[in-house]
Design brief:
Elements lengths: L4 E8 L2 H11 L3 E7 L7 E6 L8 E6 L12 E9 L4 H10 L4 E7 L2 E7 L5 E6 L16 E9 L2 H8 L5 E6 L2 E5 L4 E6 L13 E8 L2 H10 L9 E2 L3 E7 L5 E9 L14 E2 L8 H7 L20 E4 L8 E5 L10 H7 L4 E5 L3 E3 L2 E3 L3 E3 L2 E2 L1 H22 L6 E6 L1 H12 L6 E5 L20 E7 L8 H10 L3 E7 L7 H11 L1
Parallel strand pairs: 1-4, 2-17, 5-8, 9-12, 13-16, 19-20, 19-25, 25-26, 26-27, 27-28
Antiparallel strand pairs: 1-13, 2-3, 3-4, 5-9, 6-7, 7-8, 10-11, 11-12, 14-15, 15-16, 18-20, 21-22, 23-24
Helix pairs in contact: 5-6, 6-10, 7-8
Protein name: Ring-cleaving dioxygenase
GO molecular function: dioxygenase activity; hydrolase activity
Pfam family, one: Glyoxalase
Length: 507
Amino acid sequence: MTTGIHHVTGITRRVQANVDFYAGFLGLRLVKRTGGFEDAEQLHLFYGDKLGSPGSLITFLVWEDGAPGRVGHGQVAEIALSVPPDSIGDWLTRAMTARIPVEGPSREFGETVLRLKDPDGVIVKLVGVDAPATAPLPDPIAPTRLRGVTLFTEDAAGTRDFLGQFGYRAEAASGAVQRMVSDRDAVDIRDASGYFPGIPGTGTLDHVAFRAASVDEVRARRLALKDTDVTSVHDRKYFLSLYVRDPAGILLEYATDAPGFTLDETSEELGRTLFVPPHDAARAEDLRVMLPQFALPGEERMPMRDLHFTHRFHRPENPDGSTIILLHGTGGNETDLMPLAHRIAPNATLLGVRGRSTEEGINRWFRRYDAVTYDQADIRSEAEAFTAFVEDATRAYGLDPDRIGFLGYSNGANLLGAILQLHPDAVRKAILLRGIQVLEAPPASTAEALQGAKVLMLNGARDPFARMAPALEQQLSRLGAEVDSQTLPVGHELAADDLQASKDWLA
């Protein structure tokens, strides 16, 4: 029976910092980048040895700017990587030089251990132990493979017995920790009774996967687990697997070694191409625009700034120097309009921004009392804040202010309409998709306030809010803007007509 850990999966909220730590500081190889198989709008990164061998893999789901979780019982809590025993001092020096949080060295089960924290706060232990790599990395002191994981559980005996099905046997115990070992690695079970439960989110580890020799072994295991919450067998392209929770609720996976990561890339090119799951192939172009971009160590990058609005860039392969700033609709996020904007202007840099107001957990740009009654003070406050954000982003990222345009949909278009009236110099070119007048008392600006500004308003003939659009059109025109208002044969939703009308207007 093949035993040991196949991979460990965590969740990160900062893709660039994650890449810098795992590929840069630790020196692991990024062997695959793909859209998530459960959610293709979620980037999934795989790090490992030179070939991404099972037993060397740490993977991360990217929830860019996502909510942090909490480490507690019912979770995988720590990762351990094997490094050459005589390299611990070098790693301590490297960590201190790079200002990586580090504790130790200490001794755990007779092994020398350094405890690091990655940028999300995940505990990564470097364990000095002779554990040869299947496919060694170039750095002679680079991690060789996974040494193990630590599980936090309220049912230590149940977790221990459950792991026996995957080839683990009890070895030593130290305090509240029971060590289970396979032929290659270890799982430390910490009795966390009385500790608070874990909460999924960024900065936590989602699951640990154990190795299966074949698909038949996975299917046999599924039958053996038929009285649990075991899932069906999933095709993850690079391996087949199932998921199950142990008696304490810890998520475990059982995954085949084959076919592996060289299925769609040569060994020399591993990790260079962004792939999309086969079942999402029809959306491949859109997903490649929406998924967060990053630079590998040594590649050119633009440092992200900590500004007052959550934001994300998409930089095209051949940028033309223009930028489109995107404002999503109610319930959207900073990536929602990127596919549409990319089709409208394929060579424009896209800057998606997330609204700061929330309503029952969904993103908005300002508060409302009902569907057509809005918090006027909040509109003015957020309009001012967003105008300041644009000024800060223009300076921080070196954007050309004369080549910035705006695209807003629904609630985002409404904020743009308000900004045009309240801060006439902030927006000179804008496309408002289903925008309406949300200001109850528009400012008494001069007729020349928007002189030179160009606005395209695309309204829906079947949009229940369309009756409020003419008031915005009239006010913008009164302030001197050149307004092109069109009514499309659609409702409030976005449609193909929006793409064509926007392209024609920009042409």
